[in-house]
Design brief:
This protein has ten helices and eight strands. It has 252 residues and is an alpha/beta fold. It has a single domain (2-250), classed as TIM Barrel.
Length: 252
């Protein structure tokens, strides 16, 4: 099981360092689940120092698809490799607020993987797409684009898929455990059939809380969570980690 906390555009550097200290302390004795935090770029080096030698992995919230060059404001995987453990690409806020295309997500995924970063690839449908019963079609399209740049598909331990329905992110609405499990199972089947990849962890993301995490993690195809708002509260985040650890043995 993996619980990754996406801090988004929140906390000052000082607040971020304090939060990282608190998360390290609160989860230090928890075993059975992997833990990661994804602070803003400005915090990464300071949080790296806080987490050094701990069980908590460090990740970046995004990455660019080139290593170097005239790309003002961007951060490349070459800049993150060696001290960040993972990176998130394709979050719905980048797709739907910043206009990031499926193709761009695939290019980022491929370039970050080339540098040995474990990539969390986020996929998910809007409310309109779900109401039109297009959820699986949308997820399949996003997965196809994510893997299109690869000549050799990475093995299942090199990346993670996060299913995050757009209508559940930051809204307080959560997919039912059964809805989330159905899509996570479909993603695993799709990767096995189309890409020949087994053993991929598929997370659920979308208003995950300590209260709903227990039921979500009880589902057999949900291998953890991409946590937003609750990752900014150490008590809530550590409770979600504890819930994941309790179900670690249930993962298929």
């Amino acid at each position: 099981m993996l619980v990754a906390g996406n801090w988004k555009m929140n906390t000052s550097i000082y607040e971020g360092v304090e939060l990282a200290h608190a998360i390290r302390h609160a989860t230090d004795e928890t075993t059975g689940a992997d833990i990661a935090v994804l602070p803003p770029f400005t915090h990464l080096w300071a949080v790296f120092d806080v987490l050094k030698g701990s069980r908590v992995m460090l990740g970046a919230q995004d990455v660019f698809w080139e290593d170097w060059g005239a790309f003002t404001g961007e951060i490349s995987p070459a800049m993150l490799a060696g001290w960040c453990d993972l990176v998130l690409v394709g979050h719905s806020e980048r797709r739907h607020i910043l206009g990031e295309s499926d193709e761009a997500v695939g290019r980022k995924f491929a370039r970050a993987s080339r540098h040995g970063l474990r990539v969390i690839v986020a996929v998910g449908e809007t409310e309109e797409e779900r109401d039109a019963r297009h959820t699986l079609t949308v997820v399949d399209r996003q997965l196809e684009a994510a893997f299109a740049p690869f000549e050799v598909i990475p093995d299942g331990g090199a990346f993670v898929i996060a299913y995050e329905p757009v209508w559940a992110i930051g809204t307080g609405r959560t997919a039912t455990p059964q809805q989330a499990n159905e899509v996570c199972a479909h993603i695993k089947d799709r990767l096995a059939q189309r890409q020949g990849v087994l053993g991929v962890r598929v997370l659920y993301g979308g208003s995950v809380t300590p209260e709903n995490s227990v039921a979500l993690f009880a589902e057999p195809h949900i291998d953890g969570a991409l946590v937003g708002g609750a990752s900014l509260r150490v008590d809530q985040f550590s409770a979600i980690v504890t819930a994941a650890a309790a179900h670690a043995g249930d993962v298929l």
